[in-house]
Amino acid sequence: MDGSQGPEQEPAVVALRRPPVRRSTAQSLHRVRAVGASSTATPVRGTADPLLSAVEEAQPRGCYAASVVAWTASSRLTFSHILRAPVQPFTMADEAPPVYTLHYFPFSLYSLMSRFAFVLGQALNPETAPRLEVKMVNLHREENYSERYLTQVNPKGQVPALTSPLLDSNLVESRDIAGWLCQKQPELLPEEHRETIERVMDKIYAYHAKALLVAPDDRKDGLQNQAAAMLEDPELTEAHRRALEIKSVFRTLEPENILRAENQAHDLMSDLATLLEVHKGEGKTWIFGDRPTILDAHAVAFAARLLDQQRFDLVLDAVKGYVEVVRDTDEWRKVTHGRSTLWNVSMGHAADLDPL
């Protein structure tokens, strides 16, 4: 979150235990509902977090729990902190250019942010752009809950994720992917705007956008937790069951959390509108002028999704105009191919999209 603000209350969590692996429906639902019910204590930076400890025990390489709970844990780090992680330098002149796989769903907001960032990096400097393949993870068919995806790609069961034999571990947060890409391609984070970009990026990741994009009917009881339901399958392997147990940790969308997210979104849009005013110029496309940054990739995708969701109350006119200009660029079309950021039945099955 923005360093200028005080710490936000994080959701209370419960530790996950390995045995027993067989649970009744009532027991599984009880584990889901227990989140946020037993404690309101906020973990202190540097102290043990029971959920993270349990998940790290079950999954190596620091893999965390799923959905909003996992996002909250990762949001403790600022964007500048993520950028300090070591990364192997690469240029296209290398004898064997590495290939990275972006596990992606075309109607996932955070997937769009990541893919747009790769496209902008390619436009800025093809020589330093990672060689990328995009692989569909069809959320409509629950491929993100498959045993292979949960155990080999992303134990959170979310997209995007970035994998490669050249990575020390999979990158399973869009924020981490953005930080890694900026180290690979510093053109996305120009030094003269670095402090501003880091500050606004922290605001983008200060809350989960799902709180702003859920239909009113789903807010009352929270979203369906498909992972918890899948735990009742007696044919699950041990590894798949354990991964689903991690994913089943879930937090309902409380009204106060939605209100807080809306207030933070208003604050973000105000910052973007101010930046657009300060750096405005005739024919300028991007926030800081003629060249895009990592902030453009995130701000455009986020605001475009709000507009497609008809959350016009959250998007200021200046930001709306900026998004409309970017939506007409070749870079945006390479990501969306002219489609909305939201799926609708007129598009047909997501699995049949061509191009992806």
Automatic annotation (TrEMBL):
Coiled coil: none annotated. CDD domains: GST_N_family. Residues 98-189 form the GST N-terminal domain. Signal peptide: none annotated. This is Thioredoxin-like protein. It comes from Purpureocillium lilacinum. The lineage of its organism: Eukaryota, Fungi, Dikarya, Ascomycota, Pezizomycotina.
